[in-house]
Amino acid sequence: MIFKTLVLAGLVGSASAKLGEQKATVEDADMHLDLELEINGERELFPLLPGTKCPTGHHCRVRSTSPNMSPMVNSLKNNLKTSLAAALDWNDLNSNLNTVVASNDYCSRRAAMSRAAGLAAGVAATTVASPAYAAESKDVKMGSDSGQLVFVPAKISICKGDSVKWTNNKGGPHNVVFDEENIPGGVDQEKISMDDQLGEEGDTFTMKFDTAGEYGYYCEPHRGAGMNALLIVA
Asked: Which of 60, 159, 174, 194 is catalytic?
């Protein structure tokens, strides 16, 4: 759902860009283009605003609309030359949209989608350009709900700049100790590991990761019971 929303938001900004060969005019209220994309193996259509060209390398369909056009489309069209146009940085928005459509790298697409959404919402370009703007945090439970001595999930993937929050769930005390033989070169094992143990349920430990690679870690009190896990930073 977020992908569909951000594609539409990004396409608002492409009204002034030279991205395609098919076009419609703002004055021609009866003619519009639909961008055809493959989402999760299914082909879906996303409406483009009047005046928006078809992005290069993609297929668009001409769509005739009735006089009872969607209120959302009417609203966006009416704002195209007023407040919306003033608020958006068209070049940055188009750049992020191109990344979303063209990049094969998940982290690059995710960051571009987040920034495009921020620009569409009126957030300053300098703000969305910050690496921290698109950062996320993922949760890991220490001990399963049934009391098993495991990390849940035992393997996660994040992007550079993201954080992981470990929560003492069941079977504590627990801690997070990274294996110095199984972390990227140059990373300080002691700095990213947790010295103390979490004894109370609900206690947390959070760490941010800026270096790509694989990070093997374990719970020191329960390592012998197989409480190990893997973090992948892309």
From this structure: 174
What range does the domain containing 89 cover?
2-128
Q: Are 17 and 118 members of one domain?
A: yes
Q: Which residues neighbour 205 within 8 Å (Cβ) at sequence distance 6 or greater?
A: 165, 166, 175, 176, 194, 198
**Token output for 57:** 């390398």
Phi-psi region at 200: left, alpha or beta (left = phi > 0; alpha = psi -120 to 50): beta
Same domain, 65 and 111: yes
Q: Which of 103, 128, 153 is the last residue of a domain?
A: 128
Q: What pTM, to 2 d.p., does this model score?
A: 0.60
Domain final position from 128, 159, 178 = 128
pLDDT tens-digit series, residues 108-156: 888 877 877 777 677 777 787 787 888 999 999 999 999 999 999 999 9
Q: Is 69 a catalytic residue?
A: no
Query: Are residues 156 and 98 located together in one domain of the fold?
Result: no
Q: What is the pLDDT of residues 55-99, one digit of tens each?
A: 777 778 886 544 444 444 444 444 444 444 444 455 565 566 566
Which one of the listed residues 54, 60, 107, 222 is annotated catalytic? Answer: 222
Instruction: Looking at the structure, tell me whether residues 148 and 118 fall in a common domain.
Output: no
User: Is 174 an active-site residue?
Assistant: yes
CATH code, 152? 2.60.40.420
- Cα 122 to Cα 9: distance, rounded to the nearest angstrom: 11
Q: Is 159 an annotated catalytic residue? A: no
Of 60, 107, 142, 227, catalytic? 227
